[in-house]
Amino acid sequence: MIQAVLFDLDETLILDHPVSLHALQSCAFYAASWYSLDISRLIQRAEATAVRLWKSSPVYDYTQRIGHSAGEGLWARYEVQTHPALKTLHDWAPDFRIAVWRESLEEQGIHDDALCEALAHRYLGERRLYPRYPEIDSLLKALSRYKLGIVTNGVPDLQREKLEGFGLQDRFQAIVVSGELDIGKPQRGIFEHICKELDVEPSDCVMVGDNPERDVAGAAGVGMKSVWVERGFKPKDPRYKADLEVANLLEMLPWLATL
User: What are 18-59's pLDDT values in tens digits?
Assistant: First the structure.
């Protein structure tokens, strides 16, 4: 019998990629107020440059282990330093953010260090929005009979900031963040940890998320059932088959009632 429903955070409960795109667009339009440039090209180059430069981070392996991305590196504060790598990121990230805009602007022949610094700072503010998917409020009300948890990858202060901005964290009995445990999805340890927090067995849980490898495969690895939600940003992976696939999380309710 299912006793607990566990959720991923980004792109499962709250929008992630659309908000990042909004922040990039805001920065690009600001740059275009100073120079004649191709806005779409600037956005695409900034995204690609961030990913490339992120791989040169001195603690890139750590970020991969806990599931912390280049896009998040553009706005994480790294003030909570539960691991030495977070101090390294705190010191390294400011130059990384400026370099992303410097290379992206230089690709269009623009050389302006002051603008690069301004864009790095602007992104920090513009990205701080935490809209939840429209079905979430109704979903959580419908799940009131279950224990609820969140299993999220990322650095401590950024994920906790997202949770506070999400506004419904008090509806969950347990929340685990990979950067606080130094264990990230799909490693079994993070799933086992939340089961202990909720006092349930993995076989009594359903994991819900948008990432086939981290959420679906991770759940299967500890004997949990899984729901994959298709948000349009992570493609379906035939290697990792969920017990249920949905486009809206309310679609899981009839299936859940049968378990």
Answer: 999 999 999 999 999 999 999 999 999 999 999 999 999 999
Q: Which tokens hold the place of 61?
A: 């392996």
Tokens found for residue 221: 């690895």
92-142 pLDDT per residue, tens:
999 999 999 999 999 999 999 999 999 999 999 999 999 999 999 999 999
Query: Do residues 206 and 6 make contact, with C-beta atoms less than 8 angstroms apart?
Result: yes
Tokens (6 digits) for 93:
């990230």
With CA atoms as reference, report the closest residue to 130 among 160, 155, 152, 150: 160
Q: Domains (ranges, CATH) in the chain?
A: 4-15+131-257 (3.40.50.1000), 17-126 (no CATH)
β-sheet bridge partners, residue 132: 14
DSSP letter assigned to residue 215: I
- Confirm whether pTM is higher than 0.90: yes
Q: How far apart are CA 136 and CA 13, in angstroms?
A: 7
CB atoms within 10 A of CB 112: 16
List 4's β-bridge partners, or say none: 147, 205
Give which of 184, 134, 128, 120 is closest to 161, Cα–Cα.
128
Calpha distance 257→255 (Å, rounded):
5
